[in-house]
Amino acid sequence: MAVAASLVPPELLTPVKAELSNGLRVRLLPDPDSRVVSVQTFFRVGSRDERPGRTGIAHLFEHLMFNGATKYGPKEFDRAIEEQGGSSNAYTSNDVTVYHEEAPAEALELLLDLEFDRMGGLALSDASLAAEREVVKEERRLRVEDSVMGLVDEELQALVYREHPYRWPVIGWPADLDRISLADCRDFFARYYAPTNATLVIAGGFDPARALAIIERDHGRLPRGPPIESPPNEEGEQRGARRAVVRHPSQAPLLVLALRAPAAREPASAELDLLQAILSFGDGSLLVRDLVHERGLVTEIGVDYAWRLGPAAFEIVAELPPGGDPERVLREIWRHLERLAEKGPSARQLSRAKLQSQVALLRELSSVGGRAHSLGSAEILLGGLEPAVRIGERSERVTLRSAREAARATFRPERSSVVFLEPLAEPAE
Amino acid sequence: MKAELVPGAGTPRPLPGGLTLLAAPQPRATLATARLALPSGAARSGLGKSGLAELAAQLLRRGSRGLDAKQVDEALEALGSDLYVGVDDDLLQLSITVPPGSLLAAARLLVRLVRFPSYPAREVSALKKRSLAQIRAGLDEADQLADRALWREIFSGHPYADPVDGWLRDVSRLSRRDLVLHHAGQHGFAGGCLALVGRLPDGATDRIARLFSGRGDGEPPARLPSPRPLEGRRVLVVDKPDATQAQIRLGAPGISFGEPSQVACALGAGLLGGGFSSRLVGEVRVKRGLTYGISARFQLRDAGGLFAIRSFTRVAEAATLVQVCLDETERLRTEGPNEDELERVRAYARGSFLLGSETPGQIAGTLAGAFCHGLGADWIARYPKLLEETPLEAVAAALREKLWPGPYRIVAVGPGRALARALAKFGDVEVVPLRSLA
Questions:
Q1: Partner residue opposite B347 with nearest CB, options A66, A83, A142
Q2: pLDDT in tens, B78-91
């Protein structure tokens, strides 16, 4: 396994670290051979920081960050980047909001200037809020209301979580989107978009000393933000299996099984990463081989254990053929999970999963965007574990015994939630 | 900017048997990619056999001489990687990215799978059932349906009208014999390309070249006929009564790979709907809040292509969105771009190409695809120069000629009655049921 770590030049995995006096954390991963750069700003704010009645504000606010600031007016953010051959985008999750720009290396100063400009003086107006609210509603129709998977996922999160803010969708409830006011947005910006709540990561072809000097000169002038109260992070013990049914005019049934799982920073998360691979990475994985190829009970099956700051979920999504039997599929999934919980993976399965995970990580690290994102996510969600450590140690320290224990602790029917999608439509002939 | 994007790339090495090898060593890369592209895409499936090329391709990894599907899976797991198998209208492509020490083993497996598939009856039956189920399930995906409908409209009577995964009626009739015959006739190496990119171990390129040599596959396949000209202006509404949104496509015949105006068209489409600062994003999303996403581009194929605008909006705004798209397209076609915005789009295209040429997998994809589409082994070096050298007049001329001055089609997927009423002013409307797209 050390083979994978040895392939990456150590300097590409050892960031230059700095913390400005206003609390902004800076992480630099220079690569003299690269012609491009990636600038990624991680804000420690996501839907978990919202409150009922204002759900969706973290994501809606992400849209507003592209609508002009002090120096660069409306529509100028993307125009300025694209004029230099770059592109930008952002995403909001339950835990974090990430803004990323990738561009030819020569554009680095512009990218930093744009980020400094909107962090220092974002222009918020009723007009831009109204326009972006409509855009977000379109996004919600696309991703949730007209999406089978979106409908099921929304139901699932509300089933898995009763106390934790993870129970509402990142994109927000429709009525809440209408309630979000300009004052809410101003307050949100002041509270969460301060340097103390951000990490700036740069990877690619640049001089770290010069980049740091620019960041200190500009970002260093931004005022520290107010102290941020941590959102509620508890979810009580689950004492029995939960089930829900979504009826929708779809062609085929679908089911999602979610199992309560540890947060990313808890020790068993590395084991669950590998169990995820054993169950669903590639045609030879346990669930894919058996349920897709051997018995044809499902057309697709996947496992998603997304790293979370709070109580996480280990989710298995099974897409069935029209007329398929979801109860049977659920029983078969449980058969595999129970076997893993009882006996653990084989040595061969564990070793293959480690190799697969490490090659997947090497692929991620082969682009500057992937490198910056890997470092930023690891720091925020895993608590500072850097890519080098991840390659070398995170999966390597998982043993057959620890994998079995993680499976035993997680794959428990009384800690499960299942959502079935029941088709209302007649399948096409 | 450093001079050469991919040092060493673009020197073609013809191999006995008809394949061309393109190697681009990158000593500091952490991984290596082997990508095989063959001119045997979905359009070679044959009349009434849509879906055949896709099924034949996906079955390559479900059994080979001396290896059953399980053994193939295990061999791939041992490499720590997965095999990408993809088919589009023109090409079949297989790609694998592995640590350098495993490149030779990966190439051995790749050549074995492509040359000697066994098409086990059990695997054929299982994959066929799965494909049929997925085509049916695809009826839930309005965006896919809109694309499916648009291609059928624009290329009526041509193989490009058939979706890569096929129509239900065709796929249900495919047999193992069809697959074996397709493999024998279409999976030859002539006209194909093998790209090796990344950290290539000493001697690996030569050894891999030998592995892929020696199969006498005759001539590359003949060029497909051109699609017949489109006539009239028509609106096709695919009735999806439960949808809250209308998926909308506006399309017209476009250009094929290698046409002289290819780069000019790419720049022109980029200006209309190629980035967040494009005209359509400004007018439709930023100014009117009508959509979350909109794009315009020429989709090139070897024997034709189409120009398409893709977007979606709430049903009540479908006509407004279509009208804005038509107005903006017409404005650009008749007035042409100005030098400033062209320079911006040129820079964006140049940067996007650079950002898309970062990893061994990306570079191998560009090298192999460009070669098979007849753009040349040196396309990756030439393209940035072509972007610089294409003048304003050429872009304006390409837009005047290619930006649907004539017939076009509008496709909308959503509630049939409401959309038919809203879109009637754009041409004759036909409403078809969802299942007509399966």
A1: A83
A2: 998 989 999 999 99
Structure token digits, residue A57: 């504000």
Read off the tokens for A402: 């620890």
Domain residue ranges in chain A: 13-221, 242-423
pLDDT at A2 exceeding the cut of 60: no
CATH superfamily of A13-221: Metalloenzyme, LuxS/M16 peptidase-like (3.30.830.10)
A13, A386 Cβ separation under 8 angstroms: yes
Bridge partners for A419 per DSSP: A244, A256
pLDDT tier, A117 (very low <50, low <70, confident <90, very high otherwise): very high
The whole-number pLDDT of residue A393 equals 81
Q: The tokens of B58 are what?
A: 């996906």
Residue of A nearest to B2 (CA): A35
Report d(CA B243, CA A424) in Å as an integer: 14
- In whole angstroms, give the CA distance from residue A136 to residue B414: 19
Residue type, B59: L
Query: How far is the C-alpha of B168 from the C-alpha of B213, rounded, in Å?
Result: 38
Q: How confident is the model at residue A9 (pLDDT cuts 50, 70, 90)?
A: confident
DSSP A84: T
Distance CA B318, CA A84 (A): 34
Calpha distance B41→B94 (Å, rounded): 12
Alpha helices for B304-415 (secondary structure H): 318-335, 339-355, 360-372, 379-389, 392-402
Here the tokens at position A352 are 């293959």
Q: Tell me how far apart the alpha carbons of residues B368 and A48 are, in angstroms, rounded to a whole number.
A: 45
Sign of CA pseudo-dihedral B138, B143, B148, B152 = positive
Q: Does A243 touch chain B (CB under 8 A)?
A: no
- Phi, psi of B46, rounded to the nearest 5 degrees: 100, 155
Q: Which domains occur in chain B, in start order?
A: 13-211 (3.30.830.10), 233-437 (3.30.830.10)
Sheet of strand B245-253: strand arrangement: B294-301, B304-314, B245-253, B408-414, B233-239, B428-433
Structure tokens at A78: 């993307």
- Read off the pLDDT of residues B238-285 as tens digits, 9 standing for 90 and up: 999 999 999 999 999 999 999 999 999 999 999 999 999 999 999 999
Question: What is the mean predicted confidence (pLDDT) over A415-423?
Answer: 97
Amino acid A12: pLDDT: 78
Task: Annotate A229-245 with b (16+ C-beta within 10 A) or e (fewer).
Answer: eebeeebeebeeebeee
Exposed, middle or buried by CB within 10 Å (0-12, 13-18, 19+), for A267? exposed
Question: In which residue are the tokens 């400004």 written?
Answer: B282
For the segment(s) A242-423, the CATH number from 2.10.260.10, 1.10.10.10, 3.10.580.10, 3.30.830.10 is 3.30.830.10
- Is B236 within 8 Å of B250 (Cβ atoms)? no
Identify which of A137, A203, A194 has the alpha carbon closest to the alpha carbon of residue A171. Answer: A137
Q: Which residue carries 């040429």 as its tokens?
A: B357
Question: How far is the first Cα of chain A from the last one, in angstroms, to the nearest whole number?
Answer: 49
Is residue B1's pLDDT more than 60?
no
Which residues 292-311 of chain B have a CB within 8 Å of chain A?
292-293
- For residue range A250-266, list pLDDT tens digits in order: 999 999 999 999 999 99
Distance from CA of A393 to the nearest CA of B (A): 17
Contact residues, B window 98-157, toward A, CB-based 8 Å cutoff: 98-101, 123, 126, 129-130, 132-134, 136-137, 139-140, 142
State the smallest CA–CA distance between residue A10 and chain B in angstroms.
12
